[in-house]
Amino acid sequence: MTLIVEGYFPELPNPNVCYNCFRCTSGCPSAFFIEEFRPHRFVAKFKWTELEEIISKEFIWDCSKCFKCIDLCPQEVSPAVVIEYLQILVAKRGKPIPKAYEEMIKNIIESGYAFPVQEVSDRDFETFTREDLGLGPLRKPSTITQLRKILVKLK
Amino acid sequence: MNRSILVYVGCFSSTKQYALEMSNRVVLEAFDSKYEELHVMEFPNPACCGHPIRSIKPEMWLYLACRLLAIAEERGSDLLPICNGCYLSVKEAKTVIDSNPKYMAKINDLLKEEGLKYTGKTRVYHTIEYFHDVITPNRIRELVGERTVGTINVAAHYGCHALRPKHLPQFDNPKNPQKFENIIDAIGFKSIRDYPMKLECCGAPLMAPNPVLGLKVGGAKLSGALKSGADLMLTTCPYCLEMLDYRQESISSISEIEISMPVMYYQQILGLVLGFDPRDLGLNFNMSPVERILERFKK
Ligand code: SF4
Ligand code: SF4
């Protein structure tokens, strides 16, 4: 299988050996609740290189990454990796990705962390910071300047 | 064991799920001060493990995960990421570059900029693995001693990323793991070794792309534990806890049955049994009905 994306990519299993046996879909929690979400169908589309059709579908983001399909597949096709491959393809082509992911990338480059530090409420609606809890301020990466440079390069 | 272990807390617990960092610190310090051969330290120079963005920016993911390994290697330490996402991220990255000299060379090229180098000497531990294989159930029993609050039936939630995919290095049998149950029993509780949905997902990764789907998946998981007669559900993962505990009310509101199940971190309940104050374990942040369990500790 030739790689269609540049740079690092998870070892892509061979979808051509898929039995179309449905085992992946039968154990998939997302498939249980969402009619259109069918891991074996992603694999089939991939096999027939009908990529354009499938990557335009919003539901390709509905995989919970539980990896049961990888463990269930008798042919080592790894449907979750196929799905991840499609997601990466969407991102590499500059098509819209769920907002939450864009936020996280921005945050990581900015601060080293995927999320901004929060004040949290407890059961009695009292709010606490890290400092209040004796955890001290959020530890900044000591090499943040260099790290930022590297991450921008990999973006 | 003389090698030290660096505890890597990860983004989610560092910025929101503070109870994990708090309870983990309290409990591991208790073991460290009693047993000389145990030695945990705080991770220096932390940044994201890359897991949350792996399916958008795979190169960024690989770099971020590998730099954690390289930092641990620089200190001559092993690595204990206390979040399932971070654990899988680092374990998978290690597997990828250890078996691929080309990627290793590329990563090392980038690591130079941060003054780091990766050769693959660091071992990665999961929290359950650390409690079971390094601390051991015997030492847990010893430290707990005579303290008892009677039987509590516990459903253990490993979380998907602890043991899947199964082709990566594993600390327990991914098809029917038992180590979490063993360390729960060592506290003096009764784990339910098989309950419906034991190996199912909590739904947390779906909260970014599709929250309603995430809540449904979480509801299915909690219903399984309820049906088994569990009094308490335990996990070690901050994403799973946020989902099963913090979002339990939302889950219940879209479920057919009412869902009411105390959910805690393993480190929180162990800390309670060891006599620590619930607030020092961050138990005031749990939103599920943990008061049912806390009452048992009031004398
Ligand atoms: S990917 Fe694997 S489990 Fe799914 S249909 Fe194909 S062979 Fe069966
Ligand atoms: S990893 Fe994704 S596709 Fe595979 S079983 Fe889990 S939710 Fe379904």
Layout of secondary structure:
The complex is a heterodimer of chains A (155) and B (299).
Chain A: H1 23-26, H2 29-33, H3 39-47, H4 51-55, H5 68-72, H6 79-92, H7 99-111, E1 120-121, E2 127-128, H8 144-154
Antiparallel strand pairs in A: 1-2
Helix pairs in contact in A: 3-6, 7-8
Chain B: E1 5-8, H1 11-15, H2 18-34, E2 40-42, H3 58-74, E3 78-81, H4 84-98, H5 101-111, H6 127-135, H7 137-144, E4 153-156, H8 160-163, H9 179-185, E5 190-191, H10 211-227, E6 232-235, H11 238-246, H12 248-254, E7 263-265, H13 266-273, H14 291-297
Parallel strand pairs in B: 1-2, 1-3, 4-5, 4-6, 6-7
Helix pairs in contact in B: 2-13, 3-4, 6-7, 6-9, 10-12
Bound molecules: iron/sulfur cluster (2 copies).
Write structural notes for this entry:
- The complex is a heterodimer of chains A (155) and B (299).
- Chain A has 155 residues and is mainly α.
- Chain A folds into two domains: 3-92, Fumarate Reductase Iron-sulfur Protein, Chain B, domain 2; 99-154, no CATH class.
- Chain A has eight helices and two strands.
- Chain A has a two-stranded antiparallel sheet with strand order 1-2.
- Chain A is extended.
- Chain A starts with 22 loop residues before the first helix and ends with a helix.
- Residues 1-6 of chain A have low confidence and may be disordered.
- With 299 residues, chain B is an alpha/beta fold.
- Chain B folds into two domains: 5-114, Glutathione S-transferase Yfyf (Class Pi), Chain A, domain 2 (Up-down Bundle), CATH 1.20.1050.140; 145-297, Rossmann fold.
- Chain B has helices spanning 11-15, 18-34, 58-74, 84-98, 101-111, 127-135, 137-144, 160-163, 179-185, 211-227, 238-246, 248-254, 266-273, 291-297, and strands spanning 5-8, 40-42, 78-81, 153-156, 190-191, 232-235, 263-265.
- In chain B, the strands form two sheets. A four-stranded parallel sheet of chain B has the order 5-4-6-7, sandwiched between helices. In chain B, strands 2-1-3 form a three-stranded parallel sheet, with helices on both faces.
- In chain B, helix 3 packs across helix 4, helix 6 crosses helix 7 and helix 6 (127-135) packs across helix 9 (179-185).
- The longest helix of chain B is centred in the N-terminal third of the chain and has 17 residues, at 18-34.
- The two termini of chain B are 38 Å apart.
- Classes of the chains: A mainly alpha (155), B alpha/beta (299).
- Chains A and B meet through helix 2, helix 5, helix 6, helix 7 and helix 8 of A and helix 1, helix 2, helix 3, helix 5 and helix 10 of B.
- Bound molecules: iron/sulfur cluster (2 copies).
- The site of one iron/sulfur cluster has 15 residues of chain A, from helix 1 and helix 3.
